[in-house]
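Feature request disguised as a bug report, sorry. It would help if multi-protein outputs had a clear separator. Right now it looks like this:
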Amino acid sequence: MRLRRLLLLGVAAVLLAAAGAALWRSAAPRPETAHSIADQLLCPACQGESVARSQSPMAAAMRDTIEQQLAAGRSPGQIRRFFVDRYGTGVLAEPGYDGIGILLWVLPSLAVGAVAFLVVRQRRRRPAEPARGEPDTAPSPRTGRARTWDAVAVAVIALVAVVAFTSPERGNTDRPARAADATSSLLTLARSLEDQGRYAEAAEVYRDVVAQQPDDRTRLRLAFTLLRSDRAAEAATTAGEVLRDSPGSTEALLILGLAQRATGSPDATATLRRFLKAAPDDPAVPEVRRLLAKS
């Protein structure tokens, strides 16, 4: 019985420590720096790794965005809301205070309270030991103790079940959905970087997307951003790969011709003329004719 009592106290101590840690993390003041904000966000392209620690291009771009928004005078709360609006509440490293998230904050405290109540109740019901030499006529408390341990076991199992089912890492069943969400988030970030003229960073994000989803549209965006970031040789290689898979792609022809021209390749003129023949109504035709006239 002493072993059971020690086990009960150990479970209570672990739950109390977890509840105290959660309360301290939520109540303790933190310096509102770019690093601390990044540490409170999860990288959408990683598995449970914070933006502050991740080495992925997406995390690097998110850190830059945090610094830019802080410099622009936005509050940490506004910055977190900015990322939640784009990637959902799953981007937050800590659970929220509404919906199912509140259970992750309240349940450990409730479990500790329940265990403490059962311990006190059991001690109060424990019969006095008979004096030496007197027969022990008190009813056996075995049934009551068994019920107490059943209640404790149910409480602990309930805690484990709720944490398991509310955790973002519940096994393999939702990995395809998480992968699709991560790809969509990467595309959103890459387009945002393009809009800001940050083509080199956008190219690295598109490269990650291509590794997960190698479709022609994404590879063309990668080739375009590589071209805009003065990496014409890589742009030509990527556009050439698209043309091998889709010989009729006029966008790939255009990017390949421009990349070849930027690298000084003698094939640039022939490639651009192929583009003019294949897409005579494309909005880029006047500019291409102007470039060829200069050649």
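(second protein starts here, but nothing in the output says so)
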Amino acid sequence: MHAVSAALAGPVDHLKGRKGAFRIALIPPEVLRALNEGLLETVNLNEFMALELPQLARSVAGHIGLDAASERLLDTIAMLDAFKPMQRHTHIARALYDLTALHAERDAVAHRLATHPSDVARCWAAQWITLSGLPLPLQLEAVRRFAADPHFGVREIAWMAVRDPVIASLDEALALLQPWVVDADPNIRRFACELTRPRGVWCAQIEALKAEPWRALPLIEPLRADPGRYVQNSVANWLNDASKTQGEWVRKLCLRWIEESDTDATRYIAKRALRTLSRTP
């Protein structure tokens, strides 16, 4: 663990094994205070929605060596209410990115954000990849640490951060991601699949894969009997997306997979992949 993270983590160790409250009003004050000070990860959506972003942004800025009272950050905080919830995070990430670009030790600041104990802070770090302007291979290299993050929220932001450049250079992306689907880490395998879903959730659609999902076979074929349920669900969702435009192709693919790989994993993927088609008269 980075020294900053280790120093911040000590006072809240007793809170880390908690179960998240099922209503925002039931979040203990001690937990909410630690979340807003950037000392804890959120454990569910209620905690995420309860965050006081202005306080968290100032806390995190101070932790990573930026001026928490800078005009750039305070101006961003002042306008947050004008934006939708997820857009607020994008604006905070950009403000921190701009401040870091001017810092004498910007690489060290970036590392502190990427390894911060707050999952939300690490999400902001992942969003920096979108702002970097790096070529696609370097963006994928940079996002890998977030794709493998132990926190589910960071892993979701990771694939969203590089979705647009993947769409813009689809063939290159499909080739670059092939080693990811045979990686030992199930989070990495799932990332490559989720990133390229034809439709996805809360993201731009990939029109080329809606029309020709077979172009991504080199990515999804190696996952047809993946042992991880997290990966299995992603593959099934990928194919369910594709079934809405290329239903017959998905049906035939699932039949072939079961014939060639008659495993519990493959049968589970096929059943979930065909869920939309099975509801069609």
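Even a blank line would do. Unrelated, but nice: Residues 18 and 43 are 8 Å apart (CA to CA).
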